[in-house]
């Protein structure tokens, strides 16, 4: 992500600590979803979503943009998405095709890592489309879990949750294709 702020190699910053806490919440969420504690699982997902937004805002405002943060934040997002998908699929809240569609995109991007490393590049900057896709997916999952509640709350959450899901998956793949195109340009130039 290009922020215009000076890049730091510091490790212990407020945004990095927030990202580390988000990573620590992943197994907590996994256990909660497996044992059927949906209310607590929803709370953990909400805290994760807010912390994802907060760490980026604080990194820019406090001038604490770090190399570690630029790797930690998307890694925490991917891990939360993956664990949430597996948990929701295990509970039969989401279909297996959704898990496969999201994991396939991440596998595709993982295949570009050796190419980038061979050319001397690190990870690619997160695009706006990628950020919006992640936002949509991270907000879709709590809604899909909330859709399990009987009555009008569950019905509304179902519709809104699947709207976020479809947008999220579409944008997730669009961002993935943008990353692949960026890697192709780097290969052609390098």
CATH class: Mainly Alpha
How many structurally independent domains?
Answer: 1
Query: pLDDT average, as an integer?
Result: 88
Shape: globular
What is the H level of CATH, i.e. the homologous superfamily?
CDP-alcohol phosphotransferase transmembrane (TM) domain
| CATH T-level topology | Four Helix Bundle (Hemerythrin (Met), subunit A)
Order of helices and strands: HHHHHHH
How far is it from the N-terminal to the C-terminal residue, by CA? 21 Å
Structural class comes to mainly alpha
* Total beta strands: 0
Characterize the largest beta sheet: strand count, sense, and whether it forms a barrel. Answer: none
Percentage of β-strand residues = under 5%
Question: How many whole angstroms does the radius of gyration measure?
Answer: 17 Å
Number of separate helices: 7
CATH architectural grouping = Up-down Bundle
Low-confidence runs: 1-5
> Share of helix among residues?
over 70%
Subcellular location: Membrane
GO molecular function, one term: CDP-diacylglycerol-glycerol-3-phosphate 3-phosphatidyltransferase activity
Protein name: Cardiolipin synthase
InterPro entries: CDP-alcohol_PTase-I, CDP-OH_P_trans, CDP-OH_PTrfase_TM_dom, CDP_ALCOHOL_P_TRANSF_CS, Phosphatidylglycerol_P_synth
């Amino acid at each position: 992500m290009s922020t215009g702020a000076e890049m730091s190699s510091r490790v212990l910053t407020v945004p990095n600590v927030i990202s580390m806490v988000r990573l620590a919440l992943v197994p907590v969420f996994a256990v909660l979803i497996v044992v059927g504690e949906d209310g607590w699982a929803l709370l953990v997902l909400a805290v994760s979503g807010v912390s994802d937004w907060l760490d980026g805002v604080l990194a820019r405002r406090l001038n604490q943009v770090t190399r570690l943060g630029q790797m930690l934040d998307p890694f925490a997002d991917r891990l939360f998405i993956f664990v949430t998908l597996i948990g929701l699929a295990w509970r039969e809240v989401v279909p297996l095709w959704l898990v496969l569609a999201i994991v396939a995109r991440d596998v595709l991007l993982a295949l570009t890592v050796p190419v980038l490393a061979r050319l001397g590049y690190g990870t690619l900057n997160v695009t706006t489309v990628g950020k919006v896709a992640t936002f949509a997916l991270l907000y879709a999952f709590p809604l899909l879990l909330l859709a399990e509640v009987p009555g009008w709350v569950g019905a509304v959450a179902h519709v809104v949750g699947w709207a976020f899901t479809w947008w999220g998956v579409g944008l997730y793949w669009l961002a993935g294709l943008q990353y692949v195109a960026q890697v192709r340009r780097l290969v052609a130039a390098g």
